[in-house]
Every structure is written in C-alpha cells, then in structure tokens.
Amino acid sequence: MAANKTYWKNAEQLKENSPMVDQLEQKEFAEYIPVNEFLEDKEALEESSTSRRDFLKYVGFSTAAASLAACEGPVIKSVPYVVQPEQIRPGVANYYATAIADGFDFGSILIKTREGRPIKVENNPDAPVLGGANARVNASVLSMYDTQRLQGPKGNGTDISWEDLHLQVGAKLNALAATNKEVVLLTQTFASPTTEKLIADFTAKYPNVKHVSFDTVAYADAVDAFQEAYGVRALADYDFSKAEAIVSVGADFLGDWQGGGFDSGYSKTRVPSKDHGKAKMSKHFQFEANMTLSGAAADHRVPVTPSAQKNILAHLYGAITGTTVSGSLSQAHQAKVDAAVAALKAAGDKAVVVSGIQDNGAQAIVLAINNALGSVVMDANSPRLIRQENGGEVKPVIDAVIAGTLGGLITVGINPVYSLPEGEAFAEGMKKLDLSVAFSMKEDETAVAAQYIAATPHYLESWGDYEFKAGHYALAQPTIRPLFDTVQFQDSLLKWTGSEASYYDSIKSNWAETILGDSSWNTVLHDGYLSAANASQNDYNATDLSAAVASLASAQTEGLELVLYTKTGMGDGQQANNPWLQEFPDPITRITWDNYLTVAAADAAALGLKNVNVANGALNGSYAKVTVGDKTLTLPVVIQPGQAKGSVGLALGYGERKGLQDEMNVGVNAFAFYNNAKNVQSASVSLADGFHEFACTQLHNTLMGRGDIVKETTLEVFNTKDKSYWNAIPVVSKNHMEQEVTSPGVDMWQAFDRSIGHHFNLSIDLNACTGCGACVIACHAENNVPVVGKEEVRKSRDMHWLRIDRYYSSDVTFEGDNETKENISGLGDSLTTFGRMEQASENPQVTFQPVMCQHCNHAPCETVCPVAASSHGRQGQNHMAYNRCVGTRYCANNCPYKVRRFNWFLYNKNDEFDYHMNNDLGRMVLNPDVVVRSRGVMEKCSMCIQKTQKTILDAKLDGREIKDGEFQTACSAACSNGAMTFGDINDKESKISELKENERMYHLLEHVGTKPNVMYQTKVRNV
Amino acid sequence: MRKSSLGAVAGVKNLFIVIAISFAFTVSAQEADPIAGKKLFNANCAACHKLNKKAVGPALKGVSAKYDKEWLYSWIKNSAAMIKEGDAQAVAIWEEYNKTAMNAFPQLSNADIDNIIAYTDYTPPAPAVPAVAAATSTPAGDSFSNDIILGALALVFGILVVMLILVNKTLQKIAAAQGVELAPVVEKPARRPLWQAFAQNQFLVLLSVVFLLLSSAYFAYGYLMQVGVDQGYMPVQPIHYSHKIHAGANQIECKYCHSSARVSKHSGIPSLNVCMNCHKNIAEYNGEEDLENGYTKEFYTKEIKKLYAAVGWDEENQQYTGETEPVKWVRIHNLPDFVYFNHAQHVQVGQIECQTCHGPVEEMEIMYQYSPLTMGWCINCHRETNVKVKDNEYYTKIHEALSKKYGVEKLTAAQMGGLECGKCHY
C-alpha cells in the first residue's frame, strides 16, 4: 500500500496540471541562464577591460599570494595593562548587579563582564521584584555596542562641547524663566526616587518648568483608575503564583501588559505535580482579539473583538457582584463567561481578573471585581510605579508644541516625533520653540528636530536608582566606562540647578537619608536590590460604577477593530537597531524582520487577502490598505489562526526612521494609528496590489495529530488515567513481539556505561514554557550565534541554535487532532484529511516547544560524518569540532530534529552581512570562550559546554564536589519560568534526576531510538 | 667553561673587597664595622635608600658628612618625633620628600648605626677594576691562538699536497726517461653506459620512481605539517626582558608575575605595575654580563629605562608622571581561536610545572616557543599524564569508580575524558 502514497513537498504539487510543478520537475534551473546573450554581445565583450591574459594573471597572482600568506603566521601583539585593576583578571568573568529602566522594560539584572566588557545579561534570581530578563532585556547589551549611537552632544546640527551645551541651554532656561514662558520637561517614566528629587529641585529653581511623564506605550487609563480607587498614581501589581483561577479580558499579561514580568509567577501555578494525591493547577480563561502568549497558554481561549470584550467584562462584573447588567451576550460567549465565573467563585480569594481594555471605566471595574473577590493575587498596597503617563497632562503639551505656544521642550528617553500619530506636526512645532533639547542615545526624529541633542549613555554605562514597586528598590551601576562622550540627564539637571554634586553623589546621599535605613550601601549595590518592609496600606474607595458598566455593556463594533500590540521581540521599538531582536522570530507568527497586519481567516477570505507559499516554501502575503481616520498605510497581511473575527492586529515599534541602519528599517510605523494613545482603533481594510515577502522560520503551522512530537493531555486524564494512556512509550515490533523502544533488546547500538562522572540532561517543561523567547536571545549572546538577515532567513538559513516551535491544532484541540488522525481510513480519506489538517482551526490550541540539539546518546549525525567532526562525549554532550568539519552537511540531513545550522557564508567581518559582527564596536559583545565559526562549517547547540566545563573547573580549583543547580546552560539560566532545568543525572539527588523519573517525561521522536539527553514534560491543560 | 671562570672572577673580586675593607679598618677607626653595616643596610635601609642615588629617600653616600652623628641617631630611631618637635633639618628633609616620614628604627643601637654609617662612608679602592678587566680578556686570547693553529695546519696540508704532486711528476719523468712502460692503456670493448642500462631495465625505473615519489611525499608531508607550527619562534621584543635573569639568577617564581595562571585560562602578561614592585628600587643592572652577545650592564640598565618610560616613572623625582605608553609585546605562544586551553586547569589543578610545556624558561635569555603546541603533542601528554586526584574532593568519587572500571590505580587525563573533541574545541 505504501507505494501508492503520494509524497509531496508543497501544496502546489497537489494541484493538477500546475505549470509551476511541471516546470520545476523538468528543469533543474527553472530560469534561463543567459550565456549566449552574453557571449554574442560583441560590444560588451570588447569593452571589457579584463582580457583572458589578465584573468590568468589574476588567478596566478592570487594563488601565489594565498599560498605565501598561508605559510607565514601573522605577528600578534599582546598589550598588558599598565596598572591592572585589582578586580579584573584576564580570562575570568566578573558579574555586577544592576537594573534596566528604559521606560518600557524595567528589572533587576546581573551583567557578565569579561576584561571590562559587558557581554551578557543574566537574571537576578535573588531579586524579589522583576528579577527575570525578557528577550529585549537580554538583547539590550548589544544595543550598547550600537554604531548608530550618538558619540557626543550636538547643538544646531554641529558637534559642541558639554560645557557649551550646559552654558547655552542654561542661559536660555534663565531667559525663559525671566519672561516666565512655560518649559515642559517631557520624560519617560523614571520610577527613580533620586531623579524625582532632582526634578523637584530643578522645577523649584525654574518655576516655569513643568515635568510631564510620557510613556511610548501607555496605560494611562489603568493608572487613572487605580488613582481614583486607591489615591496613588500607580498600577496594581499581581502575584500570579497565588492564583487558582485567572480570567483575562484582553490583557496579555504573559507579554508586555503593564510592564510585563508576570510570567514567572504564573508558571509556578501551571506545573501539576502529584506530590499530594491529586495534582492541581490554576485555571486560565482568556478573552482576547489578537493571538497572544497569554492566549496560547490559556486553558480556555475565546477570540472576541475589543468591543465584545467590554460586554464580557460588564457581564463578569454583574455575575460576580450580583448586579444586573443590561444587554446580553451571544450564547457561546455567555457559556464561557459562566464557566469563568464558576471557576473564579470556586477559587475564592485565589481568583483574579485582569483586563487590557484601555478604558477608565473598565479598569475601575477590574479593581472592583478583584475587591469583590477579595483577591490575594492583586497587590494594591505595593503597586507598580513603572508607568506614569497621565493622558490629561500629555495631550495639552502636544497641542501646545504643535501650536508653538510653548517656551521650551526638553525630552528625555523618548521619541515623540516617531511615536505620536501627529509626529510630523510635532516636529514642525518643535522648530518654533525658543528652546528644544533632546536627551537621546540616537540621532532619532525628535533629536533631529531639537536645537540641542544631549547624548546620553546606555544604561550599562550609567548610575541609577529605581523603585519599581512601592517599597521595592533597585540600584543600577555602570559596568563599563562610557564608550562615548555622553552625560546622564540627571548630571545635566544638577548642572542647571547649580549643584556641584554628581548624580552618583546625589543617589548616595538621597539613599542614606531616605531609603537605606539600616542596610549598607555596598550590600545593596552588590545585591542590586533592596526590599523595604512596606507598611503602607492603600484602602479601596468604592465608587459608583453603574454608568461605566452600562457603557461597557452597550459597547458595539463599528467596522473592523484594529488592535495595536507590542511584539515580544521589538517592544516599543527603541531597540530597533538591534539585529538580535530583528531576527528574533515572533513567538506566535514565527516571522522575523517585519511587522504585519494579522487577520482572521474568515475576514481574509471576505477581503480577498491571501497567504501563499512560493516554490522554495517561503511565505508571501497580500498587501492591504488600512485606513484609520484620515491616515492610510499599506501593510502586508498574515492570516492568523485565533484572530477574533472582526478584528485585525498590528505591532508597534517598526517602520522606517532615523538613527537606524538601513538593514533595520523594516516594517511600517503603526504609531501613525496610535490615536490618543489607545490600542484599539476603528479601521477599514481593503486589498492592495502585490505580495510581500516574509522571512518566516516555521512554514508548517499545525501538529496534524503528531502526538509524539508534542504530548498533551488534560488535567482530568492526568489525574485519573495511567501514564501508559497519556504518555505511552512507543513500541516497535521485533520477532513479531511488540517491545518498547527504550528496552535494550530493540537497540541496534551498544550502550556505553555513562554512570561515572557527569551526565548532563536538560528538561523542558511544556507546561511552564510561555514562549517568551528569553532563552533564544540568551543563546545568541552566549554562543556568538551570527545574524544572517532577512533574505537568508527567508531561504531557511537562520542560525538560531535554539528555536521555539509553535504548533496550532487543526481541530479545536490537539486531542481532537489525534482522534481525526486515528480515524482516517483509506488513501482518499488520508489525502483529503491530511490536507485539511494542514489548516489551523479558527481558534486553535497552541503549544510552544523549545527545540535545540537533543544530544542523542545514539546520535544519527555522528555516524554519518566522514571526518568524525561530530562525536560524543562521556558527559552526554554531542561535540562539534568546527575545525574538523569540511561541510558535507550529511549530519544535518540525518538529524531527525533539524537542529544543525550550516554557515553558508562568512557572517563576521563581511560587508554582505553588515550586522554587529561586522564592526569593531559590535564585536565587543562576543563571548571570548566560544569560537566564532567560519564559512562552510556546521554548527549547533553545544549544551553550553563552555559553561559546564567552567563549573567543573571551578569545583576542581576549590577541591569540592559540585552542588545541584550549579550546572547551567545559557537557556536554562535565562528561563525565569522554571521551564528549563539543567543538571547532572548521575547526581541522584538532583532535580533533573527527579524530572527524568517524572511521569510526564518523554523524549522527542522517541520511536527513532536516538536516546536524547534533552527531555520534555508532557503538557497538561486544565480544561 | 666561561661561566665558571666568570664566577671565579666574581669570587676573586669579593675576596679582594673583603681584604681591602679589612685593610681599611685596621688603618681607620676600630669601632665601626662596614661589613656588619652592609648587612644592616640591606636588611633595614635598602628598601628606600640607595648609596649613590635618590630613591624613596635620599642617597646615603657620605651622609655622615652632611649631618651630625647624634642627630642621625635620633633621626633614625624616631624621625617623626623630630619633625613634630620642629627640628629645622628634619622638617627640611620631610618637606623635600613629599612629606613622607621615614620609618622609625628603635631596634637599632648606636653601634649598629655607626656600622651602617661606616658602610655608607666606605669607598672601595680603585685597583679592583683593572683586575676584572684582565680576567675577562683571557677568553679572547684563546680564540686568537686557535685561529693561528688552524691557519698553520691548513698551510702545512697545502704544502704537503703540492709536494705530493711534484713527487708524482718527477717520478713519471724518471720513468719515461728510463723507458719503463707504465700500465698499458687497454682498449676495452664498447660497453653500454650505465644510464642506458638503467633506462632499459623497466623494473628498476619503476622501483626508483616509486622510491622518488615516496620520499618526496615524505618530505612534502613533513614540510606541510610544520606550516603553522612555530616551535622555536623567538621574536624580538620591544623590551629585552631576560627570563634567565629573573627566573634563573633571581629565582623569581613564575606565578609571581604570571599570577592569573592560577585562576584563569590565560597565564597573563604581567601588567607594568607588577614590574614596578621590584624595579622601583632596581634602577640599574648589577648582575652577570654576557659580553659575547653584547648583554652588558649598560645594555640591561637601558632596558630598565625603557620600562620606566612605558610606565611613566620619573626616576629623578621618584614619582609617576602619569604619561604611560603600554608595551606591545609580541605574542609567542599562539593557539588558534578554535582551541580552548586553560592554564588554571593545568597549573593549579594538574600541578604541572610551567617548564613542562614552556621549557627551561629560567635559562632563556630570549623567550622562545619550546613546544610545538600541536594537537598530537597535547594528546600524547594527556595519554601519559596521571591526573592529580589527591586531596581534591572533586575527584574522590569519580576516581574511585573509574579506577575500578579500568582496573588501574592511577588515571591518565585520557581516561578521565581528556581526549574528547569537545573538551578543547568549542
């Protein structure tokens, strides 16, 4: 029967009489190579200045030169320090605790430096608040080595000295103060106690100066609602590790919602363990329009448009508080709301409702619901201070700048000309002001429009103090001397205030007076954080919400609703010149180097929008014209499974702009639609001409019932059924007996004794993984993984050693997929059913699966290498000797997991790949312990052998045994969700040994018999 | 030979000084003993003072002429007190030397101080110098006579050859004159030349072609295998730093300067402040010379001045100027980027002597690459060297298990997994 099967590589092949297939089958070179045209063109040939003789001369010369050069080694100079700093030892890394607060991302982190160069960002696991670094924070170290950074201050377009800038701006400030013309200090949210104090001193000296906070991506409504309810301008904090029932209405709390960082607490409640009889895990309902990380993780995801979300929130409120709410929901929505309310009520005070609806009433209702639930998950006593924008304050400033009625404008850490829909008018208005100063790291749109550009240092070159959350402080310290002639905003402020002190002095004295208490400055600087016991109690002031509820309940859809969101990789776009982030595949769409309009399949069909795969498999998408108000943009379209019908999504932070290298100028600036800083806009969409070429790293979207790749089950089955039901080990037939593939009898290889020494294993818990991608960037930074650019990614030549596969179910659930596949009978049925299963369902289940080299004990790649470049170590790692590799690529062909990456080109010091490895500045981020690979060799995950070897060496030097938890890979160290655990399985007490014995444990493609050293933990859904 | 003769010269010189000094004492005052004074000076004063040169403190040659003896007693025993009391001379010195007070030496008796002063006043008599010069000139005389003997021998042989030719001619003439028939020239039948015979023997041709090919392949292989192997690489360095003097003559421990070898993958080239730990006080070279190669005292002293220029040390005023110029050493041991080597693992954990890989560094006037640093060389050592597991708890369990598995008492690095590709290539 097998011979009758049709194997096909592309959907195009299934079409009968497709001319493209015919053409590809007949001709190796689909396109005609114009040899004759060239040779017949006598004129061109005669004009050519290179004769045959010349050609031979060049060949001869270059051969001789190459062979001569190969024989003589270069003279390498070594330059030691004149006076070596005490703490720096060449070859030994130093770690410093610091903090990032760029206005979008906030957190306590550790910085690894080598010979004084920061090379990697790591989590600060001891920090109680925001101690996990996301993908952008992990990548931020590269943003310091950015060639596009400002190298010094500028005045009216020319370089000036800092003395002149301070004098001239100071004089203008004095003049404006004399005439009492208003100057606005428009800044990012600092959340910095000392900076607040310095600004207060500054405004005291210049009473005409007004400080206004401006967030590129604002949560002004939530801050306003919290202020009304609790009297403090802040955002409620949520500790999801206490939650048993979570209902999110349009809040992507595993993404960037309200500053992010909620995922590590969330993941703690998502791992079922049978320690005490029946396993428990939290139950998560998600009502949302775009497919988000939170939706992907949810047990019940309901795709609903933003206006329907408002209705749902009103009804949730009604059901919980027992008030009657006008209007009614659709039957399907009502059923889900009922289920959600039941779950919330069952969880008692361990229930929580969160919402991303940008509406004052909606946010007030969320606070009311959580108060009604008595939620312990919500923390109002110690709220988050990391978003401060006040819509009511910002709007008049923008209007005044545009009208030119303002005296002066000082912007700090923001780029309003880029991030305001009225940006162009804003830039025009800035030119009319008496004084405009932009504190910026880049010569961006706002900086160009300003009279003075004050070049600021990167956060890794700066001092700083922060209060991320009331009572929880963090200190930032420089980890390198400023690379350029830059001055921190706070130091300039001190100059203008007439103070002799530096910002560092101010922080120190301010902390000594108000924050430190009994703690020592050096201890806090060493730890990076200080959590004071916060005794303050914020009382809830109940207000009448009936009007708000009525307004929400009656909200209606008008046309298509555009939901603007921030991508996991790009965020608000301030790190757009970071090639790691540009090449980071979006966790949901797996598309790199782009933003796009996400459209539901039904809407796309109605509008005639299409996604097609071209001959080499790459993805193309139609263009669409999107109009919001009087603005129209032409955008490429991605048909997104799970997108709520009637809504479209678009990511902020992209688009052509200043201060970016040409290669990074990708996508379209969606801030043009960000009217009134609201993320939902009414839009109209129509088909436009042409197709856009995407660089997508995963072209196959669905799992098609392949349950041996991602194993999934439900909490009920997990609790009631035997392991063999939901996590069966595959069997093979030997001598007509079915045997488990793990039994030694069916193995064609002899096993080695691996019980002595270390044997490393990595466990990946699919339940705890939220797909955040911090590990992907951490792997990039640790292992010097090159960036290849959009064109190469489109050709499937991306170099990521670690990818996070995202699978959609083609039925409503993965379980349904498995059943559909089992029930296929006959060839005809299989063709049609498999064809159908390629399409993700309208609202699919989603799983993320991080895949790196599986370090198989019986590795298929090792046996096929003709030069033994790939070999196995006793410690379980599959070694790759780059210097031995001759590039046959047999190993990649024989790898069932497709984790090997081939260097098609030289990616460093090559102008064709003009990313960080092509300039001296960018190369400073390279890890000196890992070799930079050359062209023509295969590379792959090494299980961070440089890190395991370092841990072993440290233990040897100390003469001690290694404790559990000391062994880490870059990805396991970066995972703050506890999804990745690394360790030595020969240490029977270790966590990894425990996980290896876990019921949920399985190996990827176990039936192949490769015996991998990476294991996965079956995903369990609480449905 | 030369070394021992030089040693003898130095010995003679010392002896001479001792005699001269003791002679001087018998003549001058009996109470002060400059030999004891020298010992005391080296033990107490030399860290900051030199005889003829300003160091941290002033030069002490003839100090007794400048100051009253009683004043010196009290100054040496407690200078700070004198400054406090406002003694004019004391304050003047204190001011001159950047207000750094001299350490107090209450443990020195007046007699000790007398001895030290006697040492600082002592001038060795002049004749010592010609004696050394005479001694060093002898080796040059030796080589001169060798040349003469060789030349004479060559001449004798030349004359002998000419004489033999002449005798032969004379004998032939005599024979011709007496009609003696010399060996008749026999007309041999025309034989094939050897090369023709060779060319016609195809087997021989084949054999020699094979031989030629094999031997050229052997030499070509040998040539190619040494490409990139820089054994013996001995580049000229910006400062002539002699390991022979530092590690050899002065027996400075390798890891005093290359301290990061204990903790890091790099052995580290010492930063210049490490040099200045000693060279703040050692401004000139006074050790042995190697005149044949031009390594005179002046030569070495000049190299020390290069260090001062690089580190920005103002010798006159005994302070740093702040104008530095880092030294660009030429790196000798170059491993390719794709090889990971860790000094701490070998030096600290493995307790391997530096000389095992770097050769007799203490005898190297100019540092060179001693070992080939090829992979085969690494691997051989890993096969042969036992791992130092004693007193290292990390190895306790793994050693026990592995020695049982292999049935051996001691484990080589290879048995521990030291031959795996990924241990050095990542």
Based on the model shown, name its key terms.
heterodimer; A: 1023 residues; alpha/beta; Rossmann fold; Dimethylsulfoxide Reductase, domain 2; Barwin-like endoglucanases; 4 domains; seven-stranded mixed β-sheet; six-stranded mixed β-barrel; 35 helices; 31% helix; B: 426 residues; mainly alpha; Cytochrome Bc1 Complex, Chain D, domain 2; two-stranded antiparallel ribbon; 3 strands; disordered N terminus
Describe this entry's structure for a reader.
The complex is a heterodimer of chains A (1023) and B (426). Chain A has 1023 residues and is an alpha/beta fold. Chain A is built from 35 helices and 43 strands. Chain A has a 7-stranded mixed β-sheet, sandwiched between helices. A 6-stranded mixed β-barrel of chain A has the order 21-27-23-26-25-28. Chain A starts with 10 loop residues before the first helix and ends with a strand. The mean pLDDT of chain A is 89. Chain B is mainly α. Chain B folds into 3 domains: 2-128, Cytochrome c-like domain (Cytochrome Bc1 Complex, Chain D, domain 2), CATH 1.10.760; 243-374, no CATH class; 375-426, no CATH class. Chain B has helices spanning 2-27, 34-45, 63-66, 69-77, 79-85, 88-96, 110-121, 128-178, 194-200, 202-225, 243-249, 254-257, 272-279, 297-311, 343-349, 354-358, 375-384, 393-406, 414-418, 421-424; strands at 313-314, 319-320, 329-330. In chain B, a hairpin with a 4-residue loop joins strand 1 and strand 2. Chain B is flat. Classes of the chains: A alpha/beta (1023), B mainly alpha (426). The interface between A and B is large, with 51 and 55 residues. Strand 1 (77-78) of chain A pairs antiparallel with strand 3 of chain B, so a sheet runs across the interface.
If you average the pLDDT of chain A, what whole number results?
89
Largest interface: A-B, 51 and 55 residues
State the secondary-structure class of chain B.
mainly alpha
Mean pLDDT of chain B: 82
Question: Shape of chain B from CA axes?
Answer: flat
Q: Tell me about the largest β-sheet of chain B.
A: 2 strands, antiparallel
Q: Domain count of chain B, please report it.
A: 3
Helix content of chain B: 55-70%
Computed over alpha carbons, the radius of gyration of chain A is 30 Å
Helix content of chain A: 25-40%
Number of strands of chain B: 3
> What fraction of residues of chain A sit in β-strands?
15-25%
Give the CA-based shape of chain A.
Answer: globular
Specify the number of helices of chain A: 35
For the largest beta sheet of chain A, what order do the strands appear in spatially?
6-5-17-16-15-7-8
